[in-house]
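Our preliminary data section would be incomplete without showing what the modeling component actually yields. Below, a chain of 115 amino acids is followed by its predicted structure, encoded as tokens that our downstream tools consume directly.
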Amino acid sequence: MPRPRTAPRTVAHPDLAQVSLQQVLEALVDPVRRTVVAQLAGAGEDLSCGAFVAPVSPSTLTHHFNVLREAGVIRQYYVGTTKMNALRTEELEKRFPGLPSAVLAALATEAADGT
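Predicted structure:
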């Protein structure tokens, strides 16, 4: 008997018009989440969840991805069974002009300083 077809996996994302500055800033206050954002920005391409180096367990890292997604900072999507992550830089720039570039510049400065 053939297996029933299943719908493609999708991940719900907030409309950035509904995301507050408070949500974005609270998502970025955590150092692990800032590390995720820095690694995505530094990669220059979308990354799978397993590609990140973080000082937390995979299940805890999943929590951090969820917080970033719900705050509109990242977009997640599936390629086969792999969940991919992308920064929503352009969308955030339209919603909060200057914020994404300022955050990424600050992350680069922190990385250069070793902090």
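The chain has a mean pLDDT of 93. The radius of gyration is 15 Å. Preliminary results of this kind motivate Aim 1 of the renewal.
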